[in-house]
């Protein structure tokens, strides 16, 4: 069996160890008692410190807890974490700490709870336009929004916009702590902190019924969407344009009977009609 580790790659397994990476000034600390892994320094777009280049994975009670890769002190590549029963908790791909493509979350029974689609390249393009809004030329609606309200435009790039429960979570100091917190099922915090929604977006109830579904286009809702608060609640369906409700929206009973029609213009309700039983 080989006794060396290939240059630039460090496989981190759950065991007590402390080492200094030559030439990098990066210290790795593993605490077998507190189950904490910490690294310095931290990098932009992610508050949990990471090593320079590594394949990271940790075990809990003999089962894999999470696995990911780090490149130049940033999460880069496939991310996946698991519940203790072996079911996947969340999975996706990151490019320099920014999610790219489909990101999926499941419960311990394996039922899909949420699907998000992100665009890493689009994130940096939109971010540049928000940082330097041009009143004469904007390629993205968030860039246009930044001309009136830059803080609001930035808020669409935060992870707590994609996963609102994140705002109620405490700060985490290790990947292990974050992953274990997600196992409670009360809220979900992604391993990334910024991203641009761009594509299919869906939430599901535990029974598999769709909670809400639609498309994001460069950070804003676009086209036809459906929403419902619970499996037994009314269904609200209609279209968005640049993130605002537009044209005709309808409310249906849980059985599919039309109850109300509303007409919007740029997010403002202009007309509505209710239907009796």
In short:
The chain is mostly beta strands and 277 residues long. It has helices at residues 120-131, 141-148, 150-155, 159-162, 175-182, and strands at residues 11-12, 18-21, 26-31, 36-39, 54-60, 63-70, 77-82, 88-95, 98-99, 101-106, 112-118, 199-204, 210-217, 220-227, 235-241, 244-252, 258-265, 268-274.
Q: Based on the structure, what is the oligomeric state of the protein chains?
A: single chain
What is the mean predicted local confidence, pLDDT?
83
Order of helices and strands: EEEEEEEEEEEHHHHHEEEEEEE
Note the gap between the termini. 75 Å
What value does the Rg take, in angstroms? 22 Å
- Count of discrete alpha- or pi-helical segments spanning 4 or more residues: 5
User: Major beta sheet, specifics?
Assistant: 15 strands, mixed
Word description of this protein:
The protein has 277 residues and is mostly beta strands. The chain has a domain at 220-277. Helix content is 14%, strand content 41%. The protein is built from five helices and 18 strands. The protein has helices at 120-131, 141-148, 150-155, 159-162, 175-182; strands at residues 11-12, 18-21, 26-31, 36-39, 54-60, 63-70, 77-82, 88-95, 98-99, 101-106, 112-118, 199-204, 210-217, 220-227, 235-241, 244-252, 258-265, 268-274. Helix 1 (120-131) packs parallel to helix 2 (141-148).
């Amino acid at each position: 069996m080989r006794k060396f580790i290939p240059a630039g790659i460090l496989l981190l397994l759950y065991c007590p160890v402390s080492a200094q990476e030559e030439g990098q000034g990066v210290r790795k600390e593993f605490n077998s008692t507190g189950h904490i892994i910490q690294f310095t320094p931290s990098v932009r777009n992610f508050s949990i410190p990471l090593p320079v280049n590594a394949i990271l994975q940790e075990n809990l009670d003999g089962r894999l807890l999470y696995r990911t890769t780090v490149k130049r002190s940033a999460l880069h590549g496939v991310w996946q974490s698991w519940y203790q029963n072996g079911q996947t908790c969340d999975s996706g791909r990151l490019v320099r700490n920014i999610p790219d493509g489909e990101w999926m979350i499941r419960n311990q029974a394996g039922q899909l709870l949420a699907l998000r689609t992100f665009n890493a390249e689009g994130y940096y393009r939109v971010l540049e336009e928000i940082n330097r809004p041009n009143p004469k030329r904007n390629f993205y609606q968030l860039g246009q929004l930044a001309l009136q309200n830059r803080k609001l435009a930035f808020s669409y790039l935060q992870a707590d916009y994609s996963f609102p429960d994140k705002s109620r979570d405490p700060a985490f100091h290790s990947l292990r702590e974050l992953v274990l917190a997600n196992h409670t099922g009360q809220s979900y915090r992604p391993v990334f902190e910024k991203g641009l929604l761009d594509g299919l977006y869906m939430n599901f109830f535990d029974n598999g019924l769709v909670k809400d579904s639609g498309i994001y286009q460069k950070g804003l809702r676009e086209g036809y969407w459906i929403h419902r608060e619970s499996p037994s609640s009314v269904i609200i369906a209609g279209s968005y344009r640049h993130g605002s409700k537009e044209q005709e929206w309808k409310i249906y009973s849980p059985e599919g009977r039309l109850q109300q029609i509303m007409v919007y213009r740029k997010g403002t309700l202009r007309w509505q009609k209710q239907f009796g039983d």
